[in-house]
Amino acid sequence: MARQLTTYTVAGTDVPCWCDIAQVSLMTGKTPSESTMAQAQMVTEGYTECFADQPPPVMWPRDLRWLQDALAYQAAWMSDRLDNFVNVDVTPVSQDGQSATMAHPQANKLAPFAWTSIQKLSWLRAGRIRMQSDSGARYANWQQIQDAFLRDLAPGDAPWQTAGPGGLA
Predict the structure, then answer these.
(1) What is the pLDDT of residues 99-120, one digit of tens each?
(2) What are the tens digits of pLDDT across the range 69-88?
(3) CA angle 70, 17, 57 (to 5 degrees)
(4) What does the domain layout of the chain look like in residue ranges?
(5) Cα dist. 44→13, 18, 68, 147 in Å?
């Protein structure tokens, strides 16, 4: 399946989307309208904080795949719901002796598979971000970092400069 950015024009406005209707149909068996694609794109962008019209300068292929999957699942899910933008925020639901609790706070706004895809994005996952190899680390443990912080040492022992008047000249 080819993965590329697709632009739909809805109400005279171009809306770039992470995937196209054919991909949604292939992945879910549903065929959303162009306006539903645009709406699903905007909802997905709201939760991922990654915008198709202003993508980050570097994006891992895996992250692009998760964004496309999230949009496909969200568009299919939204195409079956007429009340996407009139839901009430609730946590537990109870009626006629039956009750249900939402799996997560976005359960009535995001498709389950879309939520799963969004959670797999690298910038939303918990864990360590490596910027360089640890072999040249200045500090060997947290105690050394704390000691340096408490002694007010700057990286490289450079003197501090004030950012106010007369500083950083």
Answers:
(1) 887 777 777 788 999 999 999 9
(2) 999 999 999 998 877 777 66
(3) 90
(4) 1-87+100-126
(5) 18, 10, 10, 43
